[in-house]
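Catalogue entry: protein
Contents: sequence, C-alpha coordinates
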Amino acid sequence: MKINMEFLKIVKKRSFISELLYKVLNIVFAITILIIVLVTEYLVPAFALVLLSKWRVFAVRPRYWFANVQTNLVDFIVSVGFVIFLSTIAEAEPQRLIIQIILTLLYIVWLLVIKPRSRRVYVLIQAGVALFIGVAALFSVAYTWPASLVVLSMWLIGYSTARHVLSSYDEERHIMFLSLVWGLVMAELGWIAYHWTIAYSLPVIEGASLPQVSIISFCLAFLMYKAYNSYVHYQKVRFNDIVLPLIFAISVISVLLLVFNTVGTGSL
Protein backbone atom coordinates (compact mmCIF):
# COMPACT_ATOMS: atom_id res chain seq x y z
CA MET A 1 0.00 0.00 0.00
CA LYS A 2 2.82 2.34 0.87
CA ILE A 3 4.52 1.57 -2.44
CA ASN A 4 1.32 2.37 -4.32
CA MET A 5 0.96 5.68 -2.52
CA GLU A 6 4.55 6.61 -3.36
CA PHE A 7 3.94 5.68 -6.99
CA LEU A 8 0.84 7.89 -7.12
CA LYS A 9 2.79 10.79 -5.65
CA ILE A 10 5.49 10.40 -8.31
CA VAL A 11 2.89 10.26 -11.08
CA LYS A 12 1.12 13.36 -9.78
CA LYS A 13 4.41 15.20 -9.44
CA ARG A 14 5.43 14.34 -13.00
CA SER A 15 1.99 15.30 -14.26
CA PHE A 16 2.21 18.66 -12.49
CA ILE A 17 5.68 19.31 -13.87
CA SER A 18 4.59 18.36 -17.39
CA GLU A 19 1.56 20.63 -17.17
CA LEU A 20 3.66 23.49 -15.85
CA LEU A 21 6.26 23.01 -18.57
CA TYR A 22 3.53 22.92 -21.21
CA LYS A 23 2.12 26.24 -20.01
CA VAL A 24 5.52 27.90 -19.75
CA LEU A 25 6.55 26.81 -23.24
CA ASN A 26 3.33 28.10 -24.75
CA ILE A 27 3.71 31.44 -23.01
CA VAL A 28 7.30 31.70 -24.20
CA PHE A 29 6.18 30.76 -27.70
CA ALA A 30 3.60 33.57 -27.85
CA ILE A 31 5.99 36.14 -26.40
CA THR A 32 8.73 35.06 -28.83
CA ILE A 33 6.43 35.66 -31.79
CA LEU A 34 5.68 39.14 -30.43
CA ILE A 35 9.38 39.92 -30.03
CA ILE A 36 10.17 38.67 -33.54
CA VAL A 37 7.49 40.92 -35.06
CA LEU A 38 8.63 43.90 -32.98
CA VAL A 39 12.31 43.45 -33.82
CA THR A 40 12.20 42.33 -37.46
CA GLU A 41 8.82 43.77 -38.59
CA TYR A 42 8.69 40.87 -41.05
CA LEU A 43 6.18 38.04 -41.21
CA VAL A 44 8.47 35.30 -42.52
CA PRO A 45 10.49 34.65 -39.30
CA ALA A 46 7.29 34.54 -37.23
CA PHE A 47 5.63 32.20 -39.73
CA ALA A 48 8.72 30.00 -39.63
CA LEU A 49 8.41 29.74 -35.84
CA VAL A 50 4.73 28.79 -36.16
CA LEU A 51 5.64 26.05 -38.63
CA LEU A 52 8.47 24.88 -36.38
CA SER A 53 6.04 24.60 -33.46
CA LYS A 54 4.10 22.00 -35.48
CA TRP A 55 7.01 19.53 -35.64
CA ARG A 56 4.98 16.92 -33.75
CA VAL A 57 2.59 16.71 -36.70
CA PHE A 58 5.33 14.96 -38.67
CA ALA A 59 6.93 13.10 -35.77
CA VAL A 60 4.98 9.99 -36.73
CA ARG A 61 4.86 7.62 -39.67
CA PRO A 62 4.15 9.37 -43.01
CA ARG A 63 0.80 7.62 -43.37
CA TYR A 64 -0.48 9.67 -40.39
CA TRP A 65 0.76 13.03 -41.68
CA PHE A 66 -2.38 13.94 -43.64
CA ALA A 67 -4.66 13.20 -40.69
CA ASN A 68 -2.41 15.15 -38.32
CA VAL A 69 -2.27 18.12 -40.67
CA GLN A 70 -6.07 18.22 -40.89
CA THR A 71 -6.39 18.00 -37.11
CA ASN A 72 -3.98 20.91 -36.58
CA LEU A 73 -5.32 23.20 -39.31
CA VAL A 74 -7.60 25.16 -36.97
CA ASP A 75 -4.78 25.98 -34.57
CA PHE A 76 -2.49 26.80 -37.50
CA ILE A 77 -5.05 29.24 -38.94
CA VAL A 78 -5.39 31.02 -35.59
CA SER A 79 -1.61 31.20 -35.17
CA VAL A 80 -1.08 32.60 -38.66
CA GLY A 81 -3.87 35.10 -38.07
CA PHE A 82 -2.23 36.16 -34.80
CA VAL A 83 1.04 36.86 -36.63
CA ILE A 84 -0.74 38.85 -39.35
CA PHE A 85 -2.64 40.91 -36.79
CA LEU A 86 0.56 41.70 -34.91
CA SER A 87 2.17 42.87 -38.13
CA THR A 88 -0.88 44.92 -39.11
CA ILE A 89 -1.05 46.59 -35.71
CA ALA A 90 2.62 47.51 -36.09
CA GLU A 91 1.42 50.29 -38.41
CA ALA A 92 -0.97 51.73 -35.82
CA GLU A 93 0.33 54.60 -33.75
CA PRO A 94 0.80 55.47 -30.96
CA GLN A 95 -0.80 52.68 -28.95
CA ARG A 96 0.47 49.81 -31.07
CA LEU A 97 2.62 48.16 -28.37
CA ILE A 98 -0.25 48.08 -25.90
CA ILE A 99 -2.55 46.52 -28.49
CA GLN A 100 0.10 44.00 -29.51
CA ILE A 101 0.52 42.96 -25.87
CA ILE A 102 -3.26 42.56 -25.52
CA LEU A 103 -3.32 40.40 -28.67
CA THR A 104 -0.49 38.30 -27.26
CA LEU A 105 -2.39 37.78 -24.01
CA LEU A 106 -5.47 36.71 -25.98
CA TYR A 107 -3.33 34.29 -27.97
CA ILE A 108 -1.99 32.83 -24.73
CA VAL A 109 -5.59 32.31 -23.61
CA TRP A 110 -6.15 30.46 -26.88
CA LEU A 111 -3.11 28.26 -26.34
CA LEU A 112 -3.73 27.44 -22.68
CA VAL A 113 -7.50 27.58 -22.21
CA ILE A 114 -9.36 27.15 -25.50
CA LYS A 115 -7.15 25.03 -27.74
CA PRO A 116 -6.55 22.04 -25.36
CA ARG A 117 -10.25 21.48 -24.62
CA SER A 118 -12.15 18.70 -26.39
CA ARG A 119 -15.74 19.24 -25.21
CA ARG A 120 -18.09 20.14 -28.05
CA VAL A 121 -18.71 23.66 -26.79
CA TYR A 122 -14.96 24.34 -26.90
CA VAL A 123 -14.70 22.69 -30.32
CA LEU A 124 -17.36 25.11 -31.59
CA ILE A 125 -15.51 28.05 -30.07
CA GLN A 126 -12.25 26.86 -31.64
CA ALA A 127 -13.82 26.59 -35.08
CA GLY A 128 -15.60 29.93 -34.76
CA VAL A 129 -12.42 31.71 -33.67
CA ALA A 130 -10.44 30.13 -36.50
CA LEU A 131 -13.03 31.07 -39.11
CA PHE A 132 -13.39 34.68 -37.99
CA ILE A 133 -9.67 35.29 -37.43
CA GLY A 134 -8.66 33.38 -40.54
CA VAL A 135 -10.95 35.33 -42.88
CA ALA A 136 -10.16 38.68 -41.23
CA ALA A 137 -6.42 38.06 -41.45
CA LEU A 138 -6.64 36.80 -45.03
CA PHE A 139 -8.44 39.87 -46.35
CA SER A 140 -6.15 42.15 -44.35
CA VAL A 141 -3.17 41.11 -46.47
CA ALA A 142 -4.57 39.48 -49.62
CA TYR A 143 -5.55 42.60 -51.56
CA THR A 144 -2.49 42.17 -53.82
CA TRP A 145 -2.83 38.38 -54.18
CA PRO A 146 -4.28 36.68 -57.26
CA ALA A 147 -7.94 35.76 -56.93
CA SER A 148 -7.19 32.04 -57.19
CA LEU A 149 -4.99 32.12 -54.07
CA VAL A 150 -7.62 34.01 -52.07
CA VAL A 151 -10.34 31.56 -53.14
CA LEU A 152 -8.12 28.59 -52.26
CA SER A 153 -7.35 30.07 -48.83
CA MET A 154 -11.04 30.64 -48.15
CA TRP A 155 -11.77 27.06 -49.17
CA LEU A 156 -9.11 25.81 -46.74
CA ILE A 157 -10.54 27.89 -43.89
CA GLY A 158 -14.04 26.64 -44.62
CA TYR A 159 -13.02 23.01 -45.00
CA SER A 160 -10.87 22.88 -41.86
CA THR A 161 -13.37 24.65 -39.57
CA ALA A 162 -16.29 22.53 -40.80
CA ARG A 163 -14.31 19.33 -40.37
CA HIS A 164 -13.31 20.43 -36.88
CA VAL A 165 -16.95 20.82 -35.84
CA LEU A 166 -18.25 17.71 -37.61
CA SER A 167 -15.55 15.56 -36.02
CA SER A 168 -17.13 16.23 -32.62
CA TYR A 169 -20.24 14.31 -33.73
CA ASP A 170 -19.49 10.59 -33.40
CA GLU A 171 -22.54 9.64 -35.46
CA GLU A 172 -21.54 11.74 -38.50
CA ARG A 173 -20.36 9.56 -41.39
CA HIS A 174 -20.09 12.21 -44.10
CA ILE A 175 -17.50 14.50 -42.56
CA MET A 176 -15.37 14.77 -45.69
CA PHE A 177 -18.29 15.51 -48.02
CA LEU A 178 -19.94 18.10 -45.77
CA SER A 179 -16.61 19.79 -45.09
CA LEU A 180 -15.94 20.03 -48.83
CA VAL A 181 -19.39 21.54 -49.36
CA TRP A 182 -18.83 24.23 -46.74
CA GLY A 183 -15.36 24.83 -48.16
CA LEU A 184 -16.98 25.43 -51.56
CA VAL A 185 -19.43 27.92 -50.02
CA MET A 186 -16.56 29.78 -48.38
CA ALA A 187 -14.57 29.73 -51.63
CA GLU A 188 -17.47 31.31 -53.50
CA LEU A 189 -17.86 33.90 -50.76
CA GLY A 190 -14.14 34.60 -51.04
CA TRP A 191 -14.39 35.11 -54.80
CA ILE A 192 -17.19 37.64 -54.33
CA ALA A 193 -15.37 39.42 -51.51
CA TYR A 194 -12.17 39.59 -53.55
CA HIS A 195 -13.96 41.73 -56.14
CA TRP A 196 -15.98 43.68 -53.61
CA THR A 197 -14.07 44.05 -50.38
CA ILE A 198 -15.32 46.43 -47.72
CA ALA A 199 -13.50 47.02 -44.44
CA TYR A 200 -14.56 48.89 -41.33
CA SER A 201 -12.15 51.19 -39.55
CA LEU A 202 -11.71 50.28 -35.90
CA PRO A 203 -12.28 53.26 -33.59
CA VAL A 204 -9.59 52.28 -31.07
CA ILE A 205 -6.87 51.06 -33.42
CA GLU A 206 -5.63 53.52 -36.01
CA GLY A 207 -4.53 52.01 -39.30
CA ALA A 208 -6.35 48.71 -38.68
CA SER A 209 -9.63 47.59 -40.22
CA LEU A 210 -12.10 44.73 -40.02
CA PRO A 211 -13.10 43.11 -43.35
CA GLN A 212 -16.83 42.85 -43.85
CA VAL A 213 -16.56 39.33 -45.23
CA SER A 214 -15.28 38.00 -41.89
CA ILE A 215 -18.50 39.07 -40.16
CA ILE A 216 -20.72 37.75 -42.95
CA SER A 217 -18.98 34.38 -43.11
CA PHE A 218 -19.21 34.01 -39.32
CA CYS A 219 -22.97 34.72 -39.37
CA LEU A 220 -23.53 32.21 -42.18
CA ALA A 221 -21.43 29.58 -40.38
CA PHE A 222 -23.42 30.08 -37.18
CA LEU A 223 -26.69 29.64 -39.09
CA MET A 224 -25.43 26.51 -40.87
CA TYR A 225 -24.30 25.00 -37.58
CA LYS A 226 -27.69 25.55 -35.94
CA ALA A 227 -29.41 23.94 -38.92
CA TYR A 228 -27.03 20.97 -38.88
CA ASN A 229 -27.35 20.51 -35.12
CA SER A 230 -31.14 20.52 -35.42
CA TYR A 231 -30.99 17.88 -38.15
CA VAL A 232 -28.67 15.65 -36.09
CA HIS A 233 -31.02 15.64 -33.11
CA TYR A 234 -34.38 15.46 -34.91
CA GLN A 235 -33.55 14.07 -38.40
CA LYS A 236 -34.95 17.28 -39.84
CA VAL A 237 -34.26 20.99 -39.59
CA ARG A 238 -36.86 22.37 -37.21
CA PHE A 239 -37.90 25.94 -37.90
CA ASN A 240 -37.99 26.75 -34.19
CA ASP A 241 -34.31 25.82 -33.91
CA ILE A 242 -33.13 28.12 -36.67
CA VAL A 243 -35.58 31.02 -36.63
CA LEU A 244 -33.58 33.17 -34.20
CA PRO A 245 -30.18 32.42 -35.83
CA LEU A 246 -31.79 33.09 -39.23
CA ILE A 247 -33.20 36.44 -38.12
CA PHE A 248 -29.86 37.32 -36.51
CA ALA A 249 -27.84 36.43 -39.62
CA ILE A 250 -30.20 38.21 -42.03
CA SER A 251 -30.33 41.29 -39.80
CA VAL A 252 -26.56 41.59 -39.40
CA ILE A 253 -25.81 40.96 -43.07
CA SER A 254 -28.55 43.37 -44.18
CA VAL A 255 -27.26 46.13 -41.92
CA LEU A 256 -23.72 45.57 -43.15
CA LEU A 257 -24.69 45.60 -46.83
CA LEU A 258 -27.31 48.34 -46.75
CA VAL A 259 -26.09 50.71 -44.05
CA PHE A 260 -22.43 50.37 -43.13
CA ASN A 261 -21.16 50.08 -46.70
CA THR A 262 -21.29 53.86 -46.87
CA VAL A 263 -20.48 54.73 -43.25
CA GLY A 264 -16.95 54.51 -41.87
CA THR A 265 -15.74 52.03 -44.44
CA GLY A 266 -12.83 51.73 -46.77
CA SER A 267 -11.42 49.45 -49.41
CA LEU A 268 -8.67 47.01 -48.64
Observations:
- The chain has a mean pLDDT of 86.
- Residues 1-116 form one domain.
